[in-house]
UniProtKB/TrEMBL annotation:
Organism expressing this protein natively: Populus euphratica (Euphrates poplar)
Disease resistance protein winged helix domain span: 436-508
Keywords: ATP-binding, Leucine-rich repeat, Nucleotide-binding, Plant defense, Repeat
SMART domains recorded: LRR_TYP (SM00369)
A biological process term (GO) from this entry: defense response
InterPro entries, A to Z: Apaf_helical, Leu-rich_rpt, Leu-rich_rpt_typical-subtyp, LRR_dom_sf, LRR_R13L1-DRL21, NB-ARC, P-loop_NTPase, RX-like_CC
Domain R13L1/DRL21-like LRR repeat region: 696-820
CDD domains for this protein: RX-CC_like
Protein name listed in UniProt: Disease resistance protein RGA3
Domain (Disease resistance N-terminal): residue spans on this chain: 6-99
SUPFAM superfamilies for this protein: L domain-like (SSF52058), P-loop containing nucleoside triphosphate hydrolases (SSF52540)
Amino acid sequence: MAEALVSVVLEQLRSIIIQEVGQEVRLVVGVKNEVERLTSSFRAIQAVLANAEERQLEDGYVKLWLDQLKEVSYDMDDVLDEWGTAIAKSQSKVHEHPSKNKKKVCSFMIFSCFRVREVGLRRRIAYKIKELNERIDVIVIVKNMFDFKSLEAGIKQHEHHETASVIDVKDVKGRENDKDRVMKMLFSTESSQGPALRTISLVGMGGIGKTTLAKLVYNDDDVKTHFKKRIWVSVSDPFDEITIAKAILENLKESTQNLIKLQTLLEKIQSLIRGKKFVLVLDDVWNENSRKWEQLKDSLKCGLPGSRILVTTRNRNVANCMGSLSTDILELELLSTDECWSLFSQLAFFDKNSRERGNLEDIGRQIAAKCKGLPLAAKSLGSLLRFKRSRAEWESVLNSHVWEIKEAESNLLAPLQLSYHDLPSDMRRCFSYCAVFPKDFTFERDALIKQWMAQGFLRETHNKEMEVMGLECFEALAARSFFQDFVKDKGDGSIIECKMHDMVHDFAQSLTKNECFSVDIDDAAESKIDSFSRDARHSMVVFRNYDTDPLPATIHSFKKLRSLIVDGYPSSMNAALPNLIANLSCLRTLKLSGCGIEEVPSNIGKLIHLRHVDLSGNKIRELPEEMCELYNMLTLNVSFCNKLERLPDNIGRLVKLRHLSVGYSGFVKMRGFEGLSSLQELDEFHVSGSGEVSNIGDLRNLNHLQGSLTIRWLGDVKDPDEVKKAELKSKKHLTELDLRFGSRTDREKINDDEVLEALVRMTPPNLESLGIYDYQGVIPVFPCWINKLRVVRLVDWGKIKNLPPLGKLPSLEDLSVDRMERVQRVGREFLGLGVDGEDGDISIGEKTSSSSSSAIIAFPKLKRLLFGGMGEWEEWEGGRGGNEDKTNIFNSIIMPSLYLLEFWKCPKLKALPDYVLQSTTLEHLEINESPIIGAQFKAGGEGWPNASHSPNIRIIRS
């Protein structure tokens, strides 16, 4: 934590000197020297911080020194941030263009006021910097007394525990299934599994039992028989090829006394394993550089086919680096409750009689449950309690945090300390911040990244944005087993939610004892909060009872808080909020989601450091204009505020704003968006239909928008020319777009055709998903030239009689057609057959390699198709009984990848087309409230023989 803080301060100090040299800011006389002296002091401290953070684990005085350093660094960060914000704010007002109805003298008055404020500001900053310099001087003096080693002098590696292959199998609990899976991987001879020399990796957090499982496999009798040579090497860090090569030779009973060069060692290894089947265990691997492993692995390929390498690691990236295929990576799960209890009890109750066991078992089960399936925790706490016989001693362990149990601390936290110190300094800070959340908290990836951004943990580089760096950090922490219980995106498989094991959470809290705290509010709330340090920087307050408990008044006294996260519904939030904001002037993150807030006080504009505001799920009608003074704002969330009527008129002043969420809040009037050129996330944009309030043209400068955007209209006025001004074609990073035309009182007067045509002609070029809702035009306008569209939703097209030529979309996988009130027939136009391309439309398909050279493919990649609410639909061309010309259809390949087909409320549909009935890929057919076709596809029905090959046919309310 301290190392990352110091880096931030140094960066800010450097920025000040650069600005002063460039005459962008003016310093009070003497302050430049103070800034340079501060910079020198911080650089001297930075050089020894790695050594200091290592020594704090054993030396309380070093820990105290680091705490003092963090305090000064936090205060320095506040001062510099205040200065930079005030200057940017004042200069912004100086350069503002006065309104047309104002006299030019106003500009002079603003400039004059700025000069007066600037002088006062510079003097105040000068005083604070001088004061901080005096504090840092003391810290430097104390630093010199500790005799820290600098980076240049070299710092010793963290001690890794060397492992051996010996094990007592009777002591192992709960790894039978995992052992069987690994054995199958070792003995498999399937060529489809990849190269002959396969690398199998066991991945999991420290203490989960990777080495134990490897030992079980290594010592199995079948393994001893199957492999001619067995080799066990404890690798740890650093990954040194020569050391590993020597360890392999020693396992093979070969002397390495005169072998120095890697080449000689590898040649010797080859001579000993050539033509022999071997298994090599590389335990505790940390190396992520595949080049360091390549030469050693190449030398092992001379072994007999079927040889195996078994790797244990905490990091999935290491498994990939070592060459494990995804099918050869086993991520170890935690033990079950019963397995954990069995492991704990065999140690804790060793040498205790039945009376003692009966007296302690209830507490013991609670302690075992506290281990949350982590074998190392069960073994460590079980061994600790082996020599404790009183209930008081056991209850003390039950009620303590891990770091408070001195006898267990080294065993439990040491493995996590190794993983933690293997992280870069900025990543350590992101991990430590997780301590502010309670145990068993569900982390949402994107929300956590935004909070890291708000705290300044993620610094942009010239080629990497903060969000990208945050995503890389999150994925690195997940890969290193700091997170678990993953929920993954169904599309790309990325992790979107996760949790943290209790022991990992305890470790994070041990790193931030006086900085982070979370508290549950109950009858003893005040006393709980009083126990925390007033120097705390991050807090989460959790309300379990709905609208009954007030916000504790004590929270106002934590004046240094940078994060305040409230989870729940405090009864007094509206009354407490003005005073709360007035006292917590250092806040960067303010999360008051679902707190029953009806009005946001205007003094929120005084929180100059604020970067992340979450007011979602509240009862607010509008935001105060003073919020537009928050020049550092990065994230604003007012989604699910169903009473919200408008955003501030001057929201365009928030030039740093990157994430704005207003979804599910009813219709919100918006204006001034053209100034938000940094905006990357905007879930919804509302167009009022009135040029004085919200125009779609205000989107023109928002070319950094990413991900998903919904455009909603309210009212009867739409201007196709205004649509063109939005320049949607320039939004290259948008991948999902929903167009919601909204309800209208007089639909006959609206020319939706022109508006939709203008929209689709300006469609972002990299769209993968497009939804069009409430379209009341009569022409089936659709951008069939977008090659990347995978998902299409067409809902409530009230006047359309023919569907667009969607079969022309080459990448379409998921299609929903819902509530088309006037569609009676779906024909060749839907497939894109016989429809001329225009305006850059793509061709409908490629010629097949069959004898029919003219055959084309319609819907080549479509997997899921849904029709719903089609009350008048009777005929789907190509079905039995149709009298249309089928020549073009039967000369084509249609929906060759269809996997799922659903119908909902299609009461008049008579039959399905032959190309659907004869599909060999269709596995799911669901028919809901569509009686005619429902009757056909019941077992024994008229259509059953044609579709019985589909394994899942479901008829509901037919």
